[in-house]
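Let's practice the habit of predicting before peeking. Look at the sequence and jot down your guess about where helices and strands might fall. Then scroll down.
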Amino acid sequence: MTLKSMTGFSRAAGASGAWRFVWEIKAVNAKGLDVRVRVPQAFDAIEQQARAAVADKLARGTCYATLSAQRDAAQPEIRINRAALGALQTVLAELPANAALRPASLDGLLGLRGIVDVVEAGDDEETMKRIQVEALASLQTALTALVDMRAREGAALQEVLTRRVDTIADLVQAAETCPGRTPQAVRERLSRSIAELSDAAPALDPARLHQEAILLAAKADVREELDRLKAHVAAARTLLGSDQPVGRKLDFLAQEFAREANTLCAKSNDSTLTTIGMDLRVEIEQMREQVQNIE
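Done guessing? Here is the structure:
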């Protein structure tokens, strides 16, 4: 399974009859799915279908789908009202001859209002339905290209995230085997601390000092944090191999990684372990930034 990115762009052009149209789709990051479709007035009837088609292909991201359409210019249709023209000619023929009147000419008759109409060419309802169906088919082509692009970017991100998780796993293992966590090292640090306190304040109760030292040692133990980090590594690897959109789950998991790494650094009383914890925080933060773009 390949992860998918939430960003991408695609373009598909089509034609039907006298119409030429182009779909442009742009997708960017978002917490959920937000589909925004813009179509010309002549294509209002397919706006909802276009929105549904986009939602069927994408799970997350803000998607802008815009249709641009233009109709080729066509020769207007000239219609002559022959009935009116014939009636007018009949009336003129019935008028008495008059030397002061000139006979009516054809161009003069055609210039009268209502005799000649110039009608702009258009498409009937059935033609427009067919054109709209073909525009939706062109949208599917654009969506396929967009999904392919998001898949290619997702595959690159998957490789990067896999390396990040592997690095985090190595750092967790380094923390697990850190010499500063061995019982002997802890015992030596506590002994030094008790000795320093005893020398500075001889009146302090040695038994009470030992009790406080044991409590501090228990609070500084990072066993639970390391166990949870290991569990998070396993969960991340499972999600990276999933066949479902996992971006939101990975984002949540990255937050949990960060929480455990922060606690590890806060508890650490060994410089080497603290350095490992800081390296963990850097890797986790970079992982979290990249996860923001996963569908």
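How did you do? The chain has a mean pLDDT of 84.
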